[in-house]
Design brief:
The protein has 179 residues and is mainly α. Helix 1 runs antiparallel to helix 2 and helix 2 packs antiparallel against helix 3.
Length: 179
C-alpha cells in the first residue's frame, strides 16, 4: 500500500496562502488585490499538487510501469491555473496603473450608484417600479380595449394617404398651377 498522506506543513502552507489571498482580495487597494490573486493562485496550485499524490516517474508510455507514473491531470490543471493567474495579474496591474494615472492612488472608490443600491437594499425597498405587477382593478378585456394596438388597422381611424396624382407640381411651377 502506498502512503498518500500529505505533509502537515504543506497543508498549513496551503491554508495560509488561500486565507491570506482571500483576505487581500477583499481589500480596496488594487496592489493588495494583486498580491491576493498571486497568493490565492499559488495556494490552489500547491493544493492541486498535494492532492495529486506521491511523485512518480514521467507519465510517458514505455518509460516506466503505469503504477510508477505520476498522474498528469493535476500537472495540466496547474499549468492552466498558472496561465489564468498570469492573465488576472496582467489585468489587475493594468487597472492599478490606470487608476494611478487618473487619481494618483490605486484605491477603489465607492460608486454613487452602488451606494444608492445599498441604501435601497437596506430599506428593503424595490429598486424599480413594476407597472405590470400593479393591480388596476380592470379585467384583461377592459385593459386590452384601453390599450392601442399598433397592428390593428381600422378603416375609420387609419386612412391611407392618396397617391400623388400625375397633375402634381412640376418643377418651377406652383402646385398644380398653369405654366
Amino acid at each position: 500500500m502506498i502512503d498518500m498522506t500529505p505533509s502537515l506543513a504543506l497543508v498549513v502552507v496551503i491554508g495560509v496562502l488561500v486565507a491570506s489571498g482571500v483576505y487581500l482580495l477583499l481589500e480596496r487597494s488594487l496592489s493588495r488585490v494583486l498580491l491576493g490573486v498571486l497568493m490565492l493562485g499559488n495556494g490552489v496550485n500547491l493544493l492541486f499538487m498535494v492532492a495529486s499524490g506521491r511523485a512518480g516517474k514521467a507519465p510517458i508510455i514505455g518509460s516506466a510501469e503505469p503504477s510508477e507514473m505520476s498522474d498528469p491531470l493535476p500537472q495540466a490543471m496547474v499549468l492552466t491555473a498558472i496561465v489564468i493567474a498570469l492573465g488576472m495579474v496582467g489585468f489587475v496591474m493594468s487597472m492599478a496603473y490606470r487608476s494611478w494615472q487618473l487619481n494618483g492612488h490605486d484605491e477603489v472608490q465607492d460608486d454613487l450608484e452602488d451606494r444608492r443600491v445599498a441604501r435601497k437594499a437596506a430599506a428593503n425597498a424595490p429598486a424599480y417600479e413594476d407597472a405590470d405587477s400593479a393591480d388596476s382593478g380592470e379585467t384583461l378585456d377592459e385593459d386590452a380595449a384601453a390599450t392601442r394596438d399598433e397592428t390593428i388597422h381600422d378603416d375609420e381611424e387609419h386612412t391611407v394617404p392618396a397617391a400623388p396624382s400625375d397633375t402634381a407640381a412640376t418643377p418651377g411651377t406652383p402646385e398644380g398651377g398653369d405654366a
